[in-house]
Specification:
The protein contains 16 helices and 14 strands. By secondary structure, it is of the alpha/beta class. It has 2 domains: 183 residues, 3-Layer(aba) Sandwich (Rossmann fold), CATH 3.40.50.2000; 178 residues, 3-Layer(aba) Sandwich (Rossmann fold). The strands form 2 sheets. An 8-stranded mixed beta sheet has the order 4-3-2-1-5-6-7-8, with helices on both faces. A 6-stranded parallel beta sheet has the order 11-10-9-12-13-14, with helices on both faces. α12 packs across α15.
Length: 368
């Protein structure tokens, strides 16, 4: 049993199911440090600024200020107190802030990239040199797609340090039973540019003209919510498209049962932001829903075109609409593809496989 520090800039949220899985399923004693690029809280403990923290703060401020920031000294003391043996850093742009602590304690560091941290132009510009330092020190770099592996190699990461390990889907999605009785399309994701929900709505509009019973349900909230609502009104789809807003896992499961196809129009947005491998697509596949999505980031790794769903180029609304129409015309095709998707995801992209791979990486680093 190892002692592992997981570092994340955020408290646990329902949208970061991959971090929840790491925290709950990895084999070691997990200490989840969060809130800030240099975390200020430890789950189950609260704020890190205890008496030992205050002592470290003043020591850092007046004696060792050039070496570590006060917050880094506080975190370093907690690593020592909790006998941390390895550090798993969630999100690449957090790693430069944790690197000095790992160096000071000679701790192995594993860095897990997820999406924006490998692609967003501003993040890359701010971390160009820092990423090279991280790539040099880190024992292992974990990415969630082949496309992300290629991207990090271009950024200067040695290929031999990279492990492609897509985040897996929970097996309980296989217990869901889509009815395949209605032409209900579903989409789940934040309403933000890289998810391009407005393109999905535009593609569905063409389907709605031909199939009066077709419906599109979109779960999620975000900066494009108002625009999507206005677009729905402009297209006269108020009764045909549901913007469900924030949805719980239970609501997602319920909607899967009421749907026959999952759709997603992910793109690389103008600021460079991009997906990793969308977990919701894995979950839809495990639930035996076929997927219609873009040839974007890690999606082609998990959706087999023409077998478990359909893939089309980013921003090609006509192609998306054509595949949605093809699925709507043939419910038996949707069922057939859904069954293949379930088998494919369960055999190749299970959460158990993801956790086992990550667990082996951590153990290797501790015993190195």
């Amino acid at each position: 049993m190892y002692n592992l520090a997981i570092i994340s800039p955020n408290p646990i949220t329902n949208t970061e199911t991959f971090i929840i899985a790491h925290k709950n399923l990895l084999a070691g004693n997990i200490f989840y440090f969060h809130s800030g690029y240099i975390p200020t809280e430890l789950e189950g403990h609260g704020k890190l600024m205890s008496n030992i923290g205050k002592k470290a703060y003043y020591f850092a401020r007046y004696v060792l200020r050039p070496m570590l920031k006060p917050a880094q000294h506080i975190l370093k003391d907690f690593f020592i107190a909790k006998k941390i043996q390895a550090v798993l850093v969630e999100f690449g742009d957090v790693a430069p802030h944790i690197l000095p602590i790992c160096k000071a304690l000679k701790l192995p560091m594993i860095v897990h990239f997820h999406g924006y941290d490998a692609y967003m132009y501003e993040v890359l510009a701010q971390n160009k040199k820092q990423y090279l330092d991280v790539f040099t020190y880190a024992n292992d770099i974990v990415v969630v797609s082949q496309a992300m592996k290629k991207q990090l190699i271009e950024l200067g990461c040695p290929e031999g340090k990279i492990t492609v390990n897509p985040c897996g889907a929970q097996a309980y999605f296989a217990t869901l039973t889509p009815h395949f009785t209605q032409r209900n399309f579903m989409a789940v994701g934040r309403l933000v540019p890289k998810k391009a929900p407005h393109f999905t709505i535009q593609a569905f509009a063409k389907v709605a003209k031909i199939y009066p019973d077709a419906h599109l349900w979109i779960g999620g909230k975000g900066s494009l919510a108002a625009y999507c609502k206005a677009l729905i009104q402009e297209l006269g789809l108020e009764k045909r498209v549901t913007l469900a807003g924030y949805v719980t896992p239970a609501q997602i499961c319920e909607q899967i049962n009421n749907s026959f196809c999952f759709v997603q129009h992910s793109i690389r947005s103008e600021d460079g932001d991009s997906e990793g491998t969308p977990i919701v697509i894995l979950e839809a596949g495990v639930a035996a829903l076929p997927v219609i999505a873009t040839q974007h980031a890690g999606i082609p790794d998990i959706v087999i075109h023409g077998e478990t769903g359909f893939l089309f180029p980013e921003k090609d609304i006509e192609a998306m609409s054509a595949y949605m129409l093809q699925m709507a015309e043939n419910m038996d095709l949707a069922k057939k593809m859904g069954k293949k998707a379930q088998k494919h995801i369960l055999e190749n992209f299970s959460i158990e496989k993801h956790i086992k791979t990550l667990d082996n990486i951590i153990k290797k680093n501790i015993h190195h």
